[in-house]
Structures are given as structure tokens and as C-alpha cells.
Amino acid sequence: MLRTASLGFGYTAFSALAHQAFAAERAGSLLPKAPHFPAKAKRVIFMFMSGGPSHVDMFDYKPELTRRNGQAVDYGRAQSKLLQSPWAFKQHGQSGQWVSDLLPHLAKHADDLCILNGMTTPIASHTGGVPMMHTGNFQTVRPSMGAWTLYGLGSENQDLPGFLAMNPLSNLGQHNHGSAFLPASMQATMLRATNGESMPNLAPPHQSPAQQQRQLALLADFNQRRLEQDVVNNELEGVISSYELAFRMQSSIPGLMDLTKENAATLKAYGIGGKDTDAFGRQCLLARRFAEAGVRFIEIGTDGWDHHSSLKKRLGDSVAGIDQPIAALIADLKQRDMLKDTLLIWGGEFGRTPHSQLSGGRDHNNNGFTMWLAGGGVKPGHRYGATDDIGAKAVEGKTTVHDLHATMLHLLGLDHEQLSYRYSGRDFRLTDSKGRVVKEILS
Amino acid sequence: MGKEDWFCLPKWSLSSSLGAMMAAAFALIASPVHAADAGTEFFESKVRPLLIKRCYECHSADTKQKGGLVLDQRAGWEAGGDSGPALVPGDVEKSLLIEAVRHLDKDLAMPPKEKLSDSEIATLEQWVTMGAPDPRNGAVTTTKKGIDLDEGRKHWAFQPISKPSVPTVNDAKWPVTDIDRFVLARLGKEKLHPVGDADARTLIRRASLDLLGLPPLPDEVEAFVEEMNRSNGAGKSYEQLIERLLSSSHFGERWGRHWLDVARYAESTGVNWNIPYPVAWRYRDYVIAAFNADKPYDRFLQEQIAGDLMPATSDSQRNEQLIATGFLAIGLKDLQALTPKIYQMDIVDEQIAAMSRATMALSIDCARCHDHKFDPIRTEDYYALAGIFTSTEPMSGVMRLKKKDLPGTRLAALAGVPDVMPEKLRDDLIVATYDAVKLALKQRDITQLLDKAKEKQDSAEVAKRETEVAAIKAEREAALSTFKKLNAQDAASLSGKAMAVRDVRRPEDCPVYVRGESDRPGAVVPRGVPAVLTTEPITIKPGQSGRLELARWLTSPQHPLTARVMVNRVWLHLLGAGIVESVDDFGKTGQPPSHPELLDHLAQRFVEGGWSVKTLIREIMLSRVYRLASSHDAAAHDIDPANRLLWRANRVRLDAEALRDTLLHVGGALELKPPVGSPVQATANEVEFYNVEGLFNPIVLAKKHLIEADKITPDFKCMSDDCGHVHARGLLTRDYRFRSVYLPSIRGGSTPMREVFDGAAPEEVVGHRAVTTVPTQSLYLMNSPFAIDCAKQLARRVYGAAASDAERIRLAFEYALSRPPTAPESEKTSAFLKDYPSQDHELTWTVFCQTLLGSAEFRYRY
Asked: Residue A219 and which of A370, A399, B201, B373 are 20 to 30 A apart at CA?
């Protein structure tokens, strides 16, 4: 009865529920669960760069591409010319990781990054690639990786959503953050966090907290009765938990979203107030605050990485928005000794071609691209996998999206083959029937 | 699949049929051996036999040309397939062919089924190392048929609509209509049984929400329940209910909204700049009226695609048909497109996407840069359609943000309405806007110089700059006043304008643009429709775009998709899930139908019955399947938890519009009379409004931010991303009281209800909205002034209407949930009213009513 006792709806709610044993074991419970084996990471911060960031301009150094700049390559009907990166690459840190000059701040953390240069994904369209990265499937609606994580581990803080998505890319489909057939309480709560505003409707304007508790007790009673009548109703259970959580968020969220509590140096480090960095800086700082507060899975991100043209200008602008904030986030997590059990994942739905398109842009490339991980149990200052000489396709240490998901779950202490959900007579997994834990990158 | 898919898909594509890649025989056309050198000899003795034996079956000019690769000519491997040249002479490691035969990479492994022997692989390696000597001459004769149309036609959705016989069922008593027989027969196969029927209260609430998006009021419910009881369900009261609902003017507001979702209806361009469409609402009203009038669906589609080309006998009919083509004009437009050609081709693409997804649930637009990955739609098919749309000019009242593009700014003039904004004035307006913008920027720059001079305390420079600033200020004010004057005139002219399309002066075919790049025209393809869906090409009347022929083809009774797709959409909105779950994808990646015969049965009757949507709805609602209860059944749930086989009714979360309208309606606060026009138009001449909200003047193109120089940064950057949301907020969050379908629809921004309760984003065709359950929804119902106000209205209503608390409680339940409270619910409520800690009666009752409106039962239609 731990869960119902924690509701805070007062005596009435408690007694109304007390006789319903099943309530405590609701499928959608977000109470913490033990992992399958000891975990290296307790939480995930997924930084999603929507549109497909260009690996050969950031993390995948290709001198051969520079040498062959302008060389025609024939990819079927069209002839294209190879396009060298407008940015120079240098080695950084003890590890000597190659990072381009485009990322001066993040380069300082080269020794923290575990760079996966051999990523592949099956589809090169945004509408396919984005759900593939988020749910492991681009054809049907499946639970998102955050939902699976909650399903496996529950949440550490019952006063906050266990899965938060800031700056949600709603036009790409809610199902990227959805729970599909998993209990409705596993889906992400969306948060707009780019403009410094808090979440709307966080306080009752017409009644006191005590009055509201009384109201919510009555509401819980109505809803429970309806649930008894329906017998099985996943969505209704979702409604019930969403009210309970909403009530608790009224007290938990305002403080967490109030960045005025942070000192000026921190704000500056994250680039908050900076022309380019303010929006993503806020997301990064909020991500740290929510991570600290026990949110299990946090997705932050920016869009506009689909640089089909004017790469030099536009990719430069995009990176300017994220470079400093991410570096600050890594430093901050380290300083708080949280990097060791926070898994950072950075990447887009695919990468970009070595050849050019339109005026100085690059096209989609799903055959080889880069993502990086940091913290929570991955080798720091490490590089795994490689693309060919020009960055066109992965040739070594190929890592599929399923592999990435399997590895993420592994780091969280979950066996991706065991973490399944029986639905419609079949056991479903985040990794479908595939996925390999990339042991080579585990620390 | 197109060759260029190299960069889009796993190298050898997703096709699992790769398996067949290298197996059948090939009639070798012997080519003469030229030089008897060692290389040629090696080729002839070792390599050619190997290629014939193991590769030609799939990779020869006369066979499948899998992956676009042929190996029976030298030019074949030189050109390579989808993945690029098959080999690099002399370089084994860079040769795809070698990589493939080594089976190191399972996506690439060739032959896929049976790996070559080590000695065979060694032969090929040696051959490549030798520089791949190959005496075979001759040009590549690949026909480059990435897509096999005959094979493609076999897909279930491209097959002609059949006329399935109605199955006989064991339980002859249960079915009421043929629909029931199809469903029951399918259930029977799994040994499942339908649950019982819904009770009268549930039924009238369900029917009313489904058809009108509004709940029945208590009197209606009581009357219906009484009649049903009296006739024991056997009378005509249910039929009469359906007729009453179908003939209500609110029917079109509900069902029109469903269509507006798939028509990606919005009142602004979206993406960059996000300029409003002030008269887009005429299209919205057209759609609502069409559903109310039960305009035959074939006619409805024809008008939207080619209404301007159809004969009309009156001004009003002409206007109606013209407004209908707004469907093609209201799409998303990137006014920052790099070139006029890109701008045009992006609009064409958006039109093809909207048309093909909305009507055929096909993503033909995926074939813009390469043959469709999954469906048998070739790039040529795309550009055949594109030619129809490049021969069509959108009249959206906006243009790309370059001065030289003046002609793109027209709106269509409605017949019989005087035009007070001739084209000349419109062009003047654009120039005036640019002047204002230019001067604003200039003023900003000089002011910066002035500030610098002040910092340096350079008094001479300060004086000079001050004079300049003053001069520019005056100039700018003059320009601004010209702009405002013309702008007001322009706004006034909107009463005679509509968004529409028209044929260009010289319609012509369009070239294939290589890889979708508008500066790389390839072969010109005749205008037409996708080959996989037709047996004979359409013949376009000379001098016309071809839209009329496209519309007729689309609505031909033989079209395999149009009727099926619409029937499925209607089914979704009545049963809660489509027979084809992927309502917007009837292609290969979509789901197959759960009841294929039923789908065809309905589609075929729909067409035969004259494409009447109301008839179709009536037919479905009269079935027993529609009237099932939503109750649980453990055995059925174990087998079919998603209820795909319809053993019960689906519970459906009210969509954003129905939820908002219902919240307002139960308290009597909903204005049922439709508003005239749209708030977006009402603001078209309020220059200051745009200043405040950050939206642009519709025709004028320039952002008001640019006109007011000091506001250029930092909002400027912000405007291009999701902050458009913030800027349009004032318009979107006003306290409107009319029905939700009339709320402003701004791309990149949402009304609060649409945002919180999963409304359709008008960026693309949305046939099936997502349904989320998240705490932000609960917070909205707990704390938003809107929800509280709706509760207060209901509290006042029930408090004033009855004398006793018991009676008031009953009424509140009846308004909110269409049923009286159960005894425990009454008790709990009485207890609540007693111990709610407040002396304020109205507050207590408001909070109670808010509780009902926040309940899960209120949020769902059972």
C-alpha cells in the first residue's frame, strides 16, 4: 500500500482505495524496481539533434575527404562531388580524440566522450529515422526508449514524471515519446523549456491546497469506481496516476524550474543569457536539476540539423547553440559526482553524406554516422567503430540502433532480451528480436 | 528502388527478396572473345562461368537487375547498382562485389542464400586484382526498372475493390446488418463472442459525441431512454435519433473537422516567417457546409482539386468551387526558400503529399528524390503528377521573401464582389513594406553608430549621426504611414478574396528533377497519374493543367483506394480504430485490414450508393457492432487485448475539440452559432496587433519586427523556430466561446486545448490523432481558468435549476455524464459538499462540478 499511502489525497482517498488490493499493484506503477543486475547508470539524459547532424564535420575525422574534395562520385542517377569539411580537426585530451574546431567547448571534454563512429540506422527519412531512434521501429507505433526505461526501473522520485521530454518535437509524432501498449503512465511528460517560463497551470487559482486535496479525494473515488466497472482500462489507470502525479508536481516543479536559484557563474557556464546558447543552455541546466531530483529519463534537444544547404553557415549556427551548454552539463555532472551514474547520449536520427548537395549542404546518410555516449558505465575517452575513408558508411564496429538501445538498457542494469512486455500474445522488446550489447565500450 | 538510394537505405535495401538474387538461369548472349590475352582468358575460363552460374539470375539485363546492378556486361559493373560501382579494378578491398561475396556484412552478403566457395571467392579476388579484365563490350542495356509494376499491383490495396459475399454465421439472431455478419464471422474464427449491447444512455451519449462532438443534454437523454424502454429497443427511436443527429448543423462542424485534419487546414504559412492566411477560413466553412449538405464524396474531392475548372451555373456555385480548391493553397510554405524554383517545387511537393495522403493514404511525395522505398511509385510517377501542379498556380496571398517574386501574391477574386484592391495597389503595398523595412534597418544601424560616437564622446560625429537619425526617422514614418494606408485598404479587400488555385497560362509537363534538386532537370515526363494505379494513362485537355482529369481519375468507381480510404476514415471515427489501422498508409508499410471483406463491402456500397457519407455513417451506426457495450470480457481480452476484432465497443478519448466544446456546453456557455470569418482575418488590418504578436501582415510579407527597427534582435532568430508559438499566443489564447472548429489554426502554435489534448498539428495530413495521458492534462483540468470557469457555469446551472442538493447532484451528473449518480456516488458527493472546507457555496459547487468534468468518465466516450 506504499503507493496509495503516498498519494497525499488525505484520509478519504486512502480509505476509498484501501479495500482495492489491485490498486497498489497497478500495472502502471512508477515505484522504483530493481534492475536485472547491478547497474552502472541510474538515469539517462538523451540529447536528440533532430534532422541528422553531420558526423564528418564534428566527430568523424576524414582527411581523405579533404584530399578528395571536389571529386565526383556517382551515386546512381546523380553525380555529386565530395565536400571536405570546412572545419579543421585536432586531437584533444589524453585520449587524443579527434574533434573538429567547430566544437571548442566540447573538445575540452574529449576524454569524457565515448564516440561511436560506426552507427547505422535502417532508414534515411526523418519520419522513419526519428521514431527508429526513439522506439526501435519506424513502421508501427511502439513504446519509446524512455517508456521502456521506466517500465524496467520505475522512477526514483514519485513527485515528478519519470520521463520528461523538453522541447518536444511534436510535429514528428507524439509516439516518439509515447508508451504505446505499455501502461500510459510510462509516456513522457512534455515540457517547454526554451523560454524561461515554467509549466502552466501549476497552482489552483481558486482553492487552497487543503481544499484541492479534498477535491482530488472525491475525484479519485469517482475514477476508482469507474475503473472497477471497466475492470481493465489501461488509459483510465493512466488518468488516475496522472492526477496523483499532477498534484505532486504542483509542489515539486516550480522550485526545480526556477533557475534563479542557480548562481550567476553556473548560468554563465551553461550559456544562459547568451545569444545562441540560451535556449539549449536552459534545457541542459534543467536536465541536470531534474536528473538530480531523480527523473529517470530526460530527453532534451534541438531541431534544425537537416543541413541540405549552406552547411558551413547553418551547421555552425546549430553547433553554436549546443557546444557550450553540453560542455557545461558534463562539467557540472562531474563536479557533483553524478556523471558516473548518468548516461549521456548524443546524436540525431542519422548523419550526413560526404558528398555535397544543393549549395554546400549534405544529404541524409543512414549508412554511417556518429553518436556519442558519456558517463554511466561507458569507457571515457574512447572511440568505437569507424566509417570508410570518406565517412560514407560504417565499416568497422558497426552499431545499429538496436545495439545502442541494448547497450543503454545494459548500462541501466537491464537485459534487453529479458525486458519484455506481453501484449497480444507476443513478447515485445525495445530491441525487437535484435540488438547486441556493445561490450567493447563498457568501462 | 532508385539507384540513388545508396544513401537512404541499407545498401542493398530492405528487400528481403534479395534471397533470390543469384539463382536462376540466364540465356547468355555469347560475346566474341577479343584478345586472347591472359586477362581475357582468365575471365572467360574462370570468371564468366562463375558469374553466369551464381550471379546472372538476379543481375543481368534480361532478369531482375536486383539493386540496379547487372553483371552480364562490363558497363554493368562499371556503372554499378544502387550502392555504387560494383568494383574498383585493382583494389579488392574497395570493391563492393568482393565485400558482398565474402559475406562479412550481412546486409550486403551475396549471393544471399548460399555463399560462394572459398575458391570461387578467390577467383573473383584475383580477377579484381588483375584489374578486372572484361572483354564484354556494349552499352549498358539496363532498363532501370527498380520497380516492378505488375508485382506492385498485387498489393492488396491496389487490387480492385471486390464485392465479397456476406458470410453466413452460426448465430443468425445476433446480426442486425451485414456489417454484423462480417464481424461476427471473424470473431467466430477465434471462438470469440461479442459482449452485450450498450444501454440507452451510453448509446445516445456515444452517438451524439460521435456525430456532433457534443453530449446530449439531460432532457434528450431522458426522452430517448424512455422511448427505448417503452419499445424495448425494438422501435424506431434509435433510427430517429441518428436522423436527428445527421441533420443537425453541428454534424458538419464535427465531421468537417475530421476532414480539416487530413486537409492540414491552417491559417498561416508555417515554418519560417509564418505569415497568416486571412481568408483560409472560407475553405473551412466550405468543408463544414459540404458535410452538412452530404455533398457526394467524389464531387467533394473533385471540387477541391479542380473546382475552378468545373462548370458552374451561378456566381455562388463558382465561388464555392473556387473556394474548395483552397485545399491546394492552404499548405505549409517556406517563404525563405532559396530560389523561386525551390519555392515552387516545395509547394508542389506539399500539394502532392496532401492530395495523395488525404485521398489515397499513399505517400507519393516520397518519390520526389528517388523511387519510393516501399511502394511501387516511381520518380517518374511523382513528376507526372508534379507536372499537373507546376501547371497550377497557388493563389495563397503570400510569396517568397524576395522582391522580384511579386506575381505570387495573388488571392483569387470571388465572383460578384467588387475588387477594392487591384493588383497594382497590391504591388505598391509590397514595395511600401520593403521601404519601411529597409529604413527601419538603416535607422537601427545608424543609431548604433550614434551610440558608439557617444561612447567615444566624439561630439562632431554625434551631431552628424543625430541629424541622420532624425532624417531617417521622418522618412521612415512617411513610409510607415503609406504602408498602413495601403495595408488597411488591403485588409478591406479581403471580403472579396479567397485562397484558391488556377491553371497557369501555359501548362506543361515537368522534368524529373534529379534527386529532387530543382536545378537538375532530367527527362521530361508526360503529366499523368501513378502507373501502378491505372491501366490506361489519362488524357489531358490541351491548355489545361490536368487537375480535372486527375480529380476524375481519383474519383472513378474503379479507383482501388479512394473509397476504401474514406470508408476506413469514417469507420475510425465511429468505431475508434480503422479496419486498416494505419489510416494514412495503405501502402506496403501500412497495416493490412483486420476485416478485408468488410472493408470492400463498405467501399463498394459507398460507391454504388453515390458516395454519400451520411448514408455510410447511418449504415455503420445501425449495425449491432456499433451498438455494443464497451464492457470487459476476460477470455476475449486474453486473445485480442487491442479489440481489433471488435468483440466490444472501443472507449475513445474525446479529442481536443469535443472535450473543449463539451466542457463549455454542459454549463451552457458554448456559443452554438458559428462566428463569421476568423479571428485571423479580423486582425489582418491591425498593424499593431502584428507588432505585439509577432505575426506578419498577410500580404505584406514583412515581419512587423523588421518595421519596428529596435525589435530586430533577439526575437529575430527566435521567430524561425518554435517561438512562433509564443508570438501567436495572444491570438490563440483569447477567451473564445464558439465551437472549437472555428478557433484560429496557426502553424507552429496551438490553442491550449489542442496542445494539451493532442490536437492535430497542421504541418501534415493527420488521419489518426495520437492519444496521450499525461499529468499536464490533469493540471489543465485542475487549475486552468478555463476549466474552472466551465465548472462554475455548470454549478450555477444546476444550482439554479433545482431546489434540493440531491436534485442538484443528480442534475450535475446528468449534464456531465448523461446519467444519474449511483447511490455511493451521491453519498460521496453529499459528504463532500458537507466537509469541503469552505463557506463559499458557489466555490464548493464549482469544485464539485469541476471534479465531474475532470473525471475519467467525462473524458472518454464509452
From this structure: B201
d(CA B652, CA B658): 11
> Measuring CA to CA, which residue among B132, B162, B496, B181 is closest to residue B322?
B496
Residues A4-8: what's their mean pLDDT?
Answer: 39
Classify residue B93 by its DSSP letter.
G
Mutate to test the interface with A, among B774, B822, B828, B853 (most CBs of A within 10 A): B774
Nearest residue of A to residue B630, measured between CA atoms: A230
Identity of the amino acid at B740:
S
Contact (Cβ atoms closer than 8 angstroms) between residue A124 and residue A350: yes
Question: pLDDT band at B693, cuts 50/70/90?
Answer: very low
- Read off the C-alpha cell for A309: 544547404
What band does A198 get if pLDDT is binned at 50, 70 and 90? confident
Rg (CA), chain B: 33
The residue written with cell numbers 472507449 in the block is B651
Mean pLDDT on A427-435: 92
Radius of gyration of chain A (CA): 23
Residues B257 and B260: their CA atoms lie apart, in Å, by: 5
pTM of the complete model: 0.79
Q: Which stretch of A218-222, A400-404, B364-368, B623-627 has the lowest confidence by average pLDDT?
A: B364-368
Under the banding of pLDDT at 50, 70 and 90, the label for residue B84 is low
Q: How far apart are CA A418 and CA A175, in angstroms?
A: 23
Instruction: Please tell me the number of Cα atoms within 13 Å of B779 on its side-chain side.
Output: 22
Give chain B's end-to-end CA distance (angstroms, integer).
Answer: 46
Give the DSSP H/E element, type plus range, for residue B784. Answer: none
Which of B207, B195, B210, B201 is closest to B229 using CA atoms? B201
Report d(CA A46, CA A29) in Å as an integer: 23
User: Given a cut of 90, is residue B240 above it in pLDDT?
Assistant: yes
pLDDT tens digit string along B779-795? Answer: 999 999 999 999 999 99
Restricting to A residues 204-223, those with a Cβ less than 8 Å away from any Cβ of B are 204-208, 210-212, 214-216, 218-219, 221-223
Confidence of residue A13 (pLDDT cuts 50, 70, 90): very low
The complex's ipTM works out to: 0.79
Which residues of chain B have a CB within 8 Å of the CB of A212? 782
Alpha carbon B349 to its chain centroid, in Å, reads 13
CA angle B443, B445, B446 (to 5 degrees): 65
B164 exposure class (CB count in 10 Å sphere: 0-12, 13-18, 19+):
middle
By Cβ distance, the residue of A75, A202, A212 closest to B4 is A75
Pair B343, B334: CB distance under 8 Å = yes
Q: Which residue has the cell 519506424?
A: A138
Do the beta carbons of residue B87 and residue B96 sit within 8 Å? yes
Backbone angles phi, psi at B511, to 5 degrees: -80, 160
Assign A273 to helix, strand or coil: coil
| Contact (CB<8Å) A184/B773 | yes
Contact B783 A204 (CB under 8 A): yes
> In three state form, how does the secondary structure of B532-592 look?
HHCCCCCCCCCCCCCHHHHHHHHCCCCCCCHHHHHHHHHHHHHHCCCCCCCCCCCCCCCCC
Q: Is A276 exposed, middle or buried (0-12, 13-18, 19+ CB in 10 A)?
A: buried
Question: Which residues are CB-neighbours of A187 under 8 A, at least 6 positions away?
Answer: A144, A147, A163, A177, A178, A179, B772, B773, B774
- Give the Cα separation of B190 and B645 in Å (integer): 9
- Higher pLDDT: A162 or B43? It is A162
CB B142 within 8 A of CB A77: no
So what's the pLDDT on residue A78? 54
pLDDT exceeds cutoff 90 at A124: no
CA–CA gap between residue A322 and residue A320 (Å, rounded): 6
